[in-house]
Automatic annotation (TrEMBL):
Domain of life: Eukaryota
Name of this chain's protein: Uncharacterized protein
Pfam families (alphabetical): THEG
Amino acid sequence: MVKPKYDPPTNTFPYKISRRLNILSIPRKYIIDTGEGMPALNPRGIRKSALNSQISDRVNDAAWPYLRRFLIIKRMYKHRFSPERIERIDRMIEAANATCYSKLANCVLDLKKQDNTKEVKKKKGWSESEWKKHMDYISQIAGPRRDFKPPPIKRGIGKPLEELLPRINEICHFPEFKIYRRLSKEAWYRNPEKVAPGALKYVISDRVKKLAAPRVIPQAF
């Protein structure tokens, strides 16, 4: 028999109780750590089960470094490492080149056709003209900064005060300005407020009254 969706109300709780609330009201079973049966750790703090477990292919492929790092290490330390170590690096390059992550990153190399042990060719040396042009530019930017201040004003020869007095007296005089008269002082000026008395008394003609009257628009019935 299927359990009903709601529990019927009771005397103590006169409301319907949904199934979801009944499930949420069940208390959880909390785990109490007593310290017994915990995983054993080695002196370095690593679980022994993690060291003895079998590594999956996905984790093993993701653990390989980038292929470009292997190639850089091989080029840098080719003359310092022993042949056994170089051979071990070659095997690591082959293993990292065959992972699915290298295929997804589009960094798979054809190790048979491409010899990665060859050194990069050195750049060709500069010619005499290029070297001279480079050194001229270096000397130009290595020099001190140019100062773009204006040149100092050159003063004339000093003069005694007796020779400067005529010019000083000429400068200290009050300058002469041209005085303009007001318009009301001119002979041709005419005051706009003073008009003839007859100009203020005018009679509006009938024609002007008709033009100023509002228009009556006939309505259609």
